[in-house]
Amino acid sequence: MTLQHFTQNVLAGEHLLFNDMLVAAELLFNEQTPADDIASFLVALSQKGETAHEVAALATVMKSYALQVDAPAGIYIDNCGTGGDGLDTFNISTTSAFVLAGGGIPIAKHGNRKISSKSGSSDVLEALGIHTFATVEETLTLLEQEGIAFLYAPSVHPKLKRLGEIRRAIGKPTIFNLVGPLTNPVPLKTQFVGINRPNFVMEYASVLQMLGRDRAVVVSGTRGMDEASLEGQNTFVLVDNGDLIPFALRAEDAGLPETPLEAIRGGDAQENAQILRDLLNGKQSPYFDTVLLNSGIGFFAYGHAASVKEGVEMARDSILSGRANDKLQAVIAFSEKIKKEGARS
């Protein structure tokens, strides 16, 4: 069976069954599959619209090729979003990771360099002085010591290099954007995921359920933002021990002012790093409020907060107490230590 066979089915408007997508996904990771065939398949899937079964099957295969990670015992959350919303906002989920860690939530955040944005998670971390060359063992040491770590996708998914090049050549979001947050090699029981497709929120929640999450929150913000937005209404589904519960929420429901998306535009990695530093030092702005909202949802997803509004107050305390910034400084110091030890060896 060739990938072209599946592409023809997809072009005919057929949704692939879970087992068929498992076969197609293996072909995506096969070095012998021509790059043009892979690109054609990914574009065809995107044009058709991916299904929950297609996403879950690709996530299953991709995770099977990831490095095995022996994480310290704990219940970890990941707040990595899908990216690909084209809105050029700053690095909201990366900033929120420090806020969640400052509030006592163990977070193992999966991330990558920019593929369809100006600054991916790993780009802004590098600009902050947090290096992406740490080994898995070093990353797990940081996770154990500080309750926060960043897993650089190419380091834990060695077979993604070629696919990353093909995705960059396509230049638009593909199914891999949807799958990225689902393939964290650290075992997750809980998750908060922002996606760029409001009409796919329920399906994405069902994927998380298929993949064994006990509790999770999926959100799509206004204009398809892959985070919760201060502008307009956010579309959610809560996964709660087998139940899929849809709900909607606006910024004012969480005690925050409605603010247009234009107020949280980001820039390149250096600009976004400065926004992150200022914010964790308590500088009030729409960036600050956006992180309060998204971190608040993280506290709610984890079960620390009984509501998003309560979670927002936990996030505010994490920042204004200095604990979130302490986590940032601890991760930078750990990274610098690794860099110096590497230079000596």
TrEMBL record:
Coiled-coil intervals, chain numbering: none
EC number annotated for this UniProt entry: 2.4.2.18
Residues that bind anthranilate 1: G81, N112
GO cellular component: a single term: cytosol
Location of the Glycosyl transferase family 3 N-terminal domain: 6-65
Pfam families: Glycos_trans_3N, Glycos_transf_3
Positions bound to anthranilate 2: R167
Residues involved in Mg(2+) 1 binding: S93, E227
Binding site for 5-phospho-alpha-D-ribose 1-diphosphate: 81, 84-85, 89, 91-94, 109-117, 121
Cofactor: Mg(2+)
InterPro entries: Anthranilate_Pribosyl_Tfrase, Glycosyl_Trfase_fam3, Glycosyl_Trfase_fam3_N_dom, Glycosyl_Trfase_fam3_N_dom_sf, Nuc_phospho_transferase
One GO-annotated biological process of the protein: L-tryptophan biosynthetic process
SUPFAM superfamilies, sorted: Nucleoside phosphorylase/phosphoribosyltransferase catalytic domain, Nucleoside phosphorylase/phosphoribosyltransferase N-terminal domain
Metabolic or biological pathway, per its Swiss-Prot or TrEMBL entry: Amino-acid biosynthesis; L-tryptophan biosynthesis; L-tryptophan from chorismate: step 2/5
Domain of life, source organism: Bacteria
Amino acids binding Mg(2+) 2: D226, E227
Keywords, in A-Z order: Amino-acid biosynthesis, Aromatic amino acid biosynthesis, Glycosyltransferase, Magnesium, Metal-binding, Transferase, Tryptophan biosynthesis
Gene Ontology molecular function, alphabetical: anthranilate phosphoribosyltransferase activity; magnesium ion binding
Chain ranges of the Glycosyl transferase family domain: 76-324
Reaction catalysed by this enzyme: N-(5-phospho-beta-D-ribosyl)anthranilate + diphosphate = 5-phospho-alpha-D-ribose 1-diphosphate + anthranilate
Protein's job: Catalyzes the transfer of the phosphoribosyl group of 5-phosphorylribose-1-pyrophosphate (PRPP) to anthranilate to yield N-(5'-phosphoribosyl)-anthranilate (PRA).
Matches recorded under HAMAP family: TrpD
Similarity-based family: In the C-terminal section; belongs to the anthranilate phosphoribosyltransferase family.
Protein name: Anthranilate phosphoribosyltransferase
Natural source organism: Caryophanon latum
Higher taxonomy: Bacteria, Bacillati, Bacillota, Bacilli, Bacillales
Gene this protein is translated from: trpD
